[in-house]
Hints:
It is a single chain. The protein is mostly helical. The chain contains 11 helices and 5 strands. It has helices spanning 49-54, 62-66, 73-88, 94-123, 126-147, 169-191, 195-199, 209-214, 219-223, 231-234, 255-275, and strands at residues 9-13, 24-31, 34-42, 156-157, 160-161. The protein has a 3-stranded antiparallel beta sheet with strand order 1-2-3, with no helix packed on it. Strands 4-5 form a two-stranded antiparallel sheet. Helix 3 packs antiparallel against helix 4 (94-123), helix 4 (94-123) runs antiparallel to helix 11 (255-275) and helix 5 (126-147) packs antiparallel against helix 6. The N and C termini lie far apart (68 Å).
Amino acid sequence: xxxxxxxxxxxxxxxQHPSTHGVLRLVLELSGEEVVNADTTMGFLHTGIEKTxxxxxxxxxxxxxxRMDYLGAQxxxxxxxxxVEKLLGLKMPKRVDDIRVLLAELQRLASHLIxxxxxxxxxxxxxxxxxxxxxxxxxxxxxxxxxGFRFFPSYFRVGGLREDLPRGFHDAVNAFLDRFPGKLDEFxxxxxxxxxxxxxxxxVGAITxxxxxxxxxxxxxxxxxxxxxxxxxxxxYLGYETYTFTVPTATEGDVYARYRVRxxxxxxxxxxxxxx
Length: 276
């Protein structure tokens, strides 16, 4: 019987690889599906947003920062505007804060949906992408309702909002919030206890809490390792201290833990949005 080949395979991933959007090059040494070694080269994409912003009025920077992360456009503009308004000493009416919280949480859901769909697809559950995009389309419809733009609404402005909420907004949001928890249940039935999904995520890519702190990792990556750090709790803004929600955590620090944390975050975002 011929001996099985045992040498590793070297694969060049990027910088053109679509999953990295041209920002990264990885030279991977693979043994089957296990990554034995990875040589990383950063810096293939630099948009120059900081330099461009120097030549703009504060109001003109909003469309720029929304493009820093096209999946979380309004989250970016919100962070920028909160900084500008702090410099100007502006305090928004509670109604503006509530609308900003609501839209920020809907934006979080839209971003998480693309993560969920692409994550499952890359492990083999292709249909999950279609289900996730279907729900995200409803959120993009809401963006179009408030601003006429689906991806980059630029609805948040220095000193408040572009305009008041349009007719039909509350009906559209309530319809989505009533529908979405059932869809999350459906997604979890497809993935959470799926044997193939768990085999390809449990124990994979584990990051300890200490390593996460050392590397400056935040968000679901940090919380999947055991930390409950969430800016909305530790440094509340927009009145987040008045909202009832929990910060999902896990302890394993692996891909499966990060999946569970993000799904739980989506459920918390629904709760926050309903309160707002």
